Amino acid sequence: MAFHQISLKGRALRLLSGREHSRAELERKLRAHETEPGELARALDELEAKGFINEQRVLESVVHRRAAKMGAARVRQELQAKGLSPDAMAQAVADLQGSEVERAREVWRKKFGEPPADATERGKQMRFLASRGFGGDTIRRVVSGSDDDL
Q1: What pLDDT, in 10s, does the model give residues 105-150?
Q2: Which residue in 25, 57, 60 sits closest to 44, CA to CA?
Q3: Cβ neighbours of residue 97 under 8 Å, at least 6 residues apart?
Q4: Cα distance between residue 62 and residue 78, in whole Å
């Protein structure tokens, strides 16, 4: 191996130094750099055995980074894209749904701060919250200013 080539393990560690990655993400990103069959799987197995790749840390990282700004549906979508286990995703999303209205209200307050003046403004605010992954009931509660959830 020449000195200018970085090993698969080195590439994986470089990616992991920036943020947590799931095994599926690393496989997708590093597949093009595999020179012999099975080399990538061996490198990832070794990193996983040493604790560098950890599904629970990836899950916690995504939830921590996204929960304050995104709804449960958007967080679920990101977790699915990372190839995490369905059981772990379901638990994390269920935990997020308990605070969905409060989080949506905070996102709405930062962006708009006041109730919509007309139907056009109401639609704009609702679309904004929907694009962030908040559910329909939550959006209606927040935009209408309903406090029946307290």
Answers
A1: 999 999 998 999 999 999 999 999 999 999 999 999 999 886 654 4
A2: 25
A3: 72
A4: 8
Torsion of CA 66, 67, 70, 71, to 10 degrees: 140
Q: Is the domain of 47 the same as that of 33?
A: yes
- Domain span including residue 1: 1-53
pLDDT in tens, 4-24: 678 899 999 999 999 999 999
Angstrom CA distances, 72 to 39, 98, 119, stand at 37, 10, 26
How far is residue 65 from each of residues 73, 79, 82, 125, 126, measured CA to CA in Å? 15, 12, 14, 23, 23
| Torsion angle in degrees (nearest 10) through CA of 109, 113, 119, 123 | -30
Output the pLDDT for position 150. 42
DSSP for 16-54, please give it.
HHHS---HHHHHHHHGGG--STTHHHHHHHHHHHTTSS-
Is residue 150, in this structure, part of any structural domain at all? no
In this structure, which amino acid lies at residue 59? L
Q: What is the pTM of this model?
A: 0.81
**46 in the same domain as 2:** yes
